[in-house]
Amino acid sequence: MAESPCTGHPGSTAAGAHPLGATRPGEAALKAETAAVEMYRFAALLLGDEAEAMNLVETTVAAVDIDPCADPCTAKGLVRERVLDGALAIVHRDHPAAFDHLPAADPTGSCLEDDATVPLSSGEIASLIAGAGRGPLRDWLGRLSHAQRAVFVQRALLGSSNADTARAINRHARPSTWTAEAVSNLFRQALCSLASSLMHAAPAAQV
């Protein structure tokens, strides 16, 4: 059964929802479970540790009290927000200086002029995560700094904006000086690096 869309308006009647904004019993819990699966993939790539990611998601879901009559989109958003914050807190705990300094500008420049011109579409990145390219993607992520990894995974997997990504990082950075521009620059550098990595890996795979 297809999920009803998240409209962001509690009083609206989404497809499959009851009139006056009420939802089917259990729909909020189903949305939360879907979010938990999505966020496990996110946390595993951000942390580089599937066991720690699973523990984080299980702990988060257990701590979230889902009202069966609540707005499903609110329940899903709550799980996403808490897993994201928990994952960034783990990175900060294990690597206290990870977000302390803004990344230095790339002296060679980026292969992208702006965020609208990307070498890999969101669909291509999703295929890498789900398909045979998952191994190369994880290997590439392992070569990034913790800040680069946090930026890339939030932007590419969660679809977070530059501003939202900066705000999430600033909850743990000391001092909290991350900006949307800094996130944008780092994300473009990461995309160029990933595209280059995949390009060099392709001939080796054909041998």
What do you see in this structure?
- The chain is mostly helical and 207 residues long.
- The protein has two domains: 23-94, no CATH class; 122-206, Arc Repressor Mutant, subunit A (Orthogonal Bundle).
- Helices cover 60% and strands 0% of the residues.
- The chain has helices at residues 27-47, 50-63, 72-94, 122-130, 134-141, 146-158, 162-170, 180-206.
- Helix 1 (27-47) packs antiparallel against helix 2, helix 2 packs across helix 3 (72-94) and helix 6 packs across helix 7.
- The longest helix has 27 residues, at 180-206.
- The model is unreliable at 1-5, 7-25 and 203-207 (pLDDT under 50).
Q: What attributes does this structure have?
A:
single chain; 2 domains; Arc Repressor Mutant, subunit A; mainly alpha; 8 helices; 207 residues
Topology record:
Elements: H1 27-47, H2 50-63, H3 72-94, H4 122-130, H5 134-141, H6 146-158, H7 162-170, H8 180-206
A few lines on this structure:
The protein is an all-alpha fold.
* Helical percentage: 55-70%
Structural class: mainly alpha
**Relative strand content:** under 5%
Ends distance: 43 Å
Spell the H/E element sequence.
HHHHHHHH
What is the gyration radius calculated from CA atoms?
19 Å
Mean pLDDT: 76
